[in-house]
């Protein structure tokens, strides 16, 4: 066989191996819905992110991002990038977050921009907690998420672009992995999208 | 089978191995994981409070701004590591992570019933000796059996209102994380 043809085939196979191997690894570790993540309504949890026996993809992703995920014994964290209707969360809209939340000692709701940064705004905060909200007669708190100041429970935004919400439940009585799907989480309803 | 198809199949097969190798080596090769990021906050062998961002990126990605955080990277080669903190009567949680970031042990304020936190992270060979003869002053001690060379702790304390932030920060600044050679008598 022609020597150059042989070298060409080896080069092809090597590039293919590197491309397929590294490319697929990059795609799987970089995706927004990692292996082992669970969806509950608009929210997504990743319960085994901090577990010692997490799958290799979870471990690789935690190592790559440098986050400090909550272990199940500490609590649960949920992220939402879309509203309950499936539309991407946008800073130009006003959202109402309502409905029961599973019993927990403390919950916190944080707005990050699409890159995970906290957003500067006139209120000087980008979170609200179960300690700071006022509740209705049914004991539930309704939260308005918007860039414009709102009376009542207001989570300020400061972005024209996309944002994401993190809901963290600390010290819940729930800790079974399969209980996550049964957890009660609020809905995110877009009310004013100019 | 043509030579081209044979080499393509071989390339795909090796690609699968490259994929597995990349995923498995990433945690050890990462220079951006929590362990590496914490070194920027002087957390080696001491408990350092992490800055609480109001805007911009949090100290560590996606950190909860409703909590005050402190962290300490430790090694057990000089002896057990003792962590002491007198925290406000408030939700707090402490997690002990291995170097890869996995949480291997955790505790929160309810477990201590308002007592100050006093814990000792010790290698398994020391734990037995410490349990057998608890040195004086260590009766309320929380003992953590740590079969790894190193790790880091992350302490989260709820900041209930912004007016309470200074009190929480002061409690975290007064907390300590240091090698305690006296905990193991030779």
- Helical fraction of chain B equals 25-40%
**Which structural class fits the helix and strand makeup of chain A?**
alpha+beta
Please give the number of β-strands of chain B: 9
Return the average pLDDT of chain A rounded to an integer: 88
Backbone structural class of chain B:
alpha+beta
Number of strands of chain A: 10
> Would you list the SSEs of chain A in sequence order as H and E?
HEEHEEEEEEEE
Please state roughly what percent of the residues of chain B sit in beta strands, choosing from under 5%, 5-15%, 15-25%, 25-35%, 35-45% or over 45%. 25-35%
Proper CATH architecture of the largest domain in chain A? Sandwich
Biggest interface in this structure? Answer: A-B, 62 and 58 residues
Largest sheet of chain B: 5 strands, antiparallel
Write a structural description.
The complex is a heterodimer of chains A (194) and B (186). With 194 residues, chain A is of the alpha+beta class. Chain A has two domains: 1-30; 32-192, Sandwich (Jelly Rolls). Chain A has two helices and ten strands. Chain A has helices at 3-30, 56-65, and strands at residues 38-40, 43-45, 75-80, 94-98, 104-113, 127-129, 143-146, 154-156, 163-172, 187-192. A six-stranded antiparallel sheet of chain A has the order 1-2-3-9-5-6, with no helix packed on it. The radius of gyration of chain A is 21 Å and the shape is elongated. With 186 residues, chain B is of the alpha+beta class. Chain B folds into two domains: 1-30; 34-183, Sandwich (Immunoglobulin-like), CATH 2.60.40. In chain B, the strands form two sheets. Chain B has a five-stranded antiparallel sheet. The longest helix of chain B has 27 residues, at 3-29. Chain B is globular and about 75 Å long. The interface between A and B is large, with 62 and 58 residues.
């Amino acid at each position: 066989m022609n020597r150059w043809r042989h070298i060409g085939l080896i080069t092809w196979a090597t590039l293919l191996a590197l491309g397929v191997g590294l490319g697929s690894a990059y795609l799987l570790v970089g995706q927004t819905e990692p292996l082992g993540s669970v969806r509950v309504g608009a929210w997504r949890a990743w319960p085994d992110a901090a577990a010692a026996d997490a799958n290799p993809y979870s471990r690789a992703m935690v190592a790559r991002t440098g986050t400090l995920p909550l272990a199940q014994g500490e609590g649960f964290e949920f992220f939402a990038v879309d509203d309950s209707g499936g539309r991407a969360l946008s800073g130009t809209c006003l959202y109402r977050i309502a409905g029961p939340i599973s019993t927990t000692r403390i919950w916190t709701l944080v707005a990050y921009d699409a890159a995970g940064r906290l957003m500067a705004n006139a209120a000087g905060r980008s979170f609200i907690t179960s300690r700071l909200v006022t509740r209705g007669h049914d004991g539930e708190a309704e939260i308005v998420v918007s860039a414009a100041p709102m009376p009542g429970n207001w989570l300020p935004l400061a972005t024209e672009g996309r944002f994401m919400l993190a809901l963290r439940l600390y010290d819940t009585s729930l800790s079974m992995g399969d209980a996550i799907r049964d957890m009660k989480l609020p809905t995110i309803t877009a009310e004013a999208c100019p | 089978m043509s030579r081209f198809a044979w080499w393509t199949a071989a390339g795909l097969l090796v690609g699968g191995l490259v994929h597995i190798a990349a995923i498995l080596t990433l945690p050890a090769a990462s220079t951006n994981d929590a362990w590496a990021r914490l070194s920027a906050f002087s957390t080696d062998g001491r408990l350092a409070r992490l800055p609480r961002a109001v805007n911009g990126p949090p100290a560590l990605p996606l950190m909860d701004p409703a909590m005050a955080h402190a962290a300490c990277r430790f090694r057990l080669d000089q002896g057990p590591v003792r962590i002491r903190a007198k925290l406000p009567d408030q939700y707090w949680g402490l997690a002990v992570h291995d170097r890869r970031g996995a949480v291997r042990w955790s505790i929160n304020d309810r477990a201590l019933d308002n007592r100050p936190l006093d814990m000792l992270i010790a290698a398994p060979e020391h734990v037995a000796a410490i349990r057998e003869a608890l040195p004086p002053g260590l009766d309320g001690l929380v003992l953590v059996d740590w079969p790894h060379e190193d790790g880091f702790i992350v302490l989260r304390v709820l900041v209930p209102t912004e007016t309470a932030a200074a009190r929480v920060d002061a409690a975290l600044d007064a907390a300590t994380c240091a090698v305690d050679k006296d905990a193991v008598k030779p």
